[in-house]
Design goal:
single chain; alpha/beta; Arc Repressor Mutant, subunit A; 3 domains; six-stranded parallel β-sheet; 24 helices; about 45% helix
Length: about 625
Amino acid sequence: MSGQRSGTSRGWTRSAGRLAMSGVETRIAHWRRQGWLNEVDGHLARMLARRHPAMGVGAALAAALLSQALEEGHTCLPLAQIAATLTARGEATSVQGLQDQLWASAAVVAPEHAAERPAPMVLDAAQRLALLRWHRAESRIAAELVRRAGALTEVDEERAQQMLARLFPESPDAPNLQKTAAALALCKRLLILCGGPGTGKTWTLARMLALCSALTAGQLRVALAAPTGRAAMRLGEAIREAAAAMSEDIGRQALPEAETLHRLLGYQPQTGRFRRNADNPLPADLVIVDEASMVDDLLLDALLAAAPAGCRLVLCGDPGQLPPVAPGSLLHSLAGLGTPGYAPALRAACARLCGRDMPEPPDAAAANLLNECRITLKKAHRFDETSGISALAAALQHADPAAELKRVLSRSWPDITLLGTETARSGLPAILLEMFRPLYRAVTAAEAMAAFARCRVLCALREGPWGVAGINRLCRELLRRQGLVPARQEWYRGLPVLIQHNAHDLRLYNGDTGMLWPDENAVLRAWFAAEGGLRPFPPAALPAWQPAWAITVHKAQGAEFDDVVLVLPEGDNPLLTRELLYTAVTRARKRLVLVAGPEALERSAVRQLQRYSALGDLLSAFGKPPIFIDSTSPNE
């Protein structure tokens, strides 16, 4: 009889599973028809429902929404957010009801049980749902950062004092935060160096390199990297320029070529893995990563796995900028830990090295090891008091950004031009022609690339008359009327191009900018910047590209231009955020033209980008009973 009941039970379970699966299929099909899910999100929900027959419609759709959230940069979603979305779309449920469904589905596990009983999704104590892969990545990131932030390192204090005094002249009226940052880099194995435009981050990095090189008798092994090719090239150029201005010799071996993080770690596109990892670490004593705000969680996880346990790691960036396109928000999560503070032993060590005491944390109980590793450079050296660009960037970091923005823009500035969208219809063409005309006066490809590198139009949107597509059409038409470009040719002299997809065999990557220009034999080539020169390609060999007079603000991250025209759309748009406006403003060095109405500027200043992530809580858990940290390798 017991065997008969068991068979009946199994049959009932299969039948119930088929019924549940049928309901999931029906609702996913409905959501797809409504445009609420794409094919990938729907596929994930169906796959999980097939593997977990007890999964109800709500739990399956929660998985689909979680997949969708990854595309928007979130690594998790609060159950309250999921339940609200389900209810708004006719799938009425409560947070408790959704939680019960998820636990009943067996597709969810608590973080503390994820190692011995892995499941596709993790539901933590804060009622945040995450895919297991992202939970593991954020857990490893938090664990590794805290580990590297630990014990003080041994320093030859007498030699270090002498070098610091030579490299960082002390100001009598204020602490030299650049000098303090270099001292921190000697005392700790982790440094998070933050600061806005022109605050001397790269200047500090160059002197930090000279300092560390001198203290290792020129035997320092250094890796320089950034998330994008443009940012890596800019980092290398800036380090070389700063090094050339110093009397101290950094040392030939200590100044390698700056690389993208993918190239540094040996990304293998066939497998999606990295050649460098914990079993095959980077041959480096010092790893410096610029534009850290652009580094997503999976890339950061891979970097921390590949960086040797004993090496120094310096992460440099501006927390006010846009986060990476892929999920992740490291600098924002670190900023959420509160004010940097320094324990007595570290404060004493830095005081001996710098000859000046460091400030104590305002709330010693709130200090943690990661706060000891953070320092923010605040003094802008690039701009003076007449700079509207600097004042505008500062306004966007103010406690009341909308009011401060209004106050700044009520003044007249020599480096800012403000055009409303109506005024721009008549005034923008002349500005664009003035900005791009020097490009078409160039004789060589190198001259053309240099001229184009000084200016860019940045847009919040890709499509529409005020988006990248519309502004690029306007630029070509204006140049055609001047006889500077042809009307119908696909490829022609003076066409700037932006690569849209990676071509690993050509070493051309998404975001790289080039220029079509004849070579010495009058053959049209596509020229791209390379270490020490330019690389030519046949235009037909290029991967997917688009014209690059105008690019999105996201694509401009990691670059700076003398002249920037920023175009914001009319009406409201959720993409208009403080981070986007700040990132765009800080791309300009000498001149900024704002094509935007006052409403668009105010909305951008007020609206902050929100990303759901558990990383901040994992980082802040230092010193408390530890949240479970999953040590599974990132390649698993």
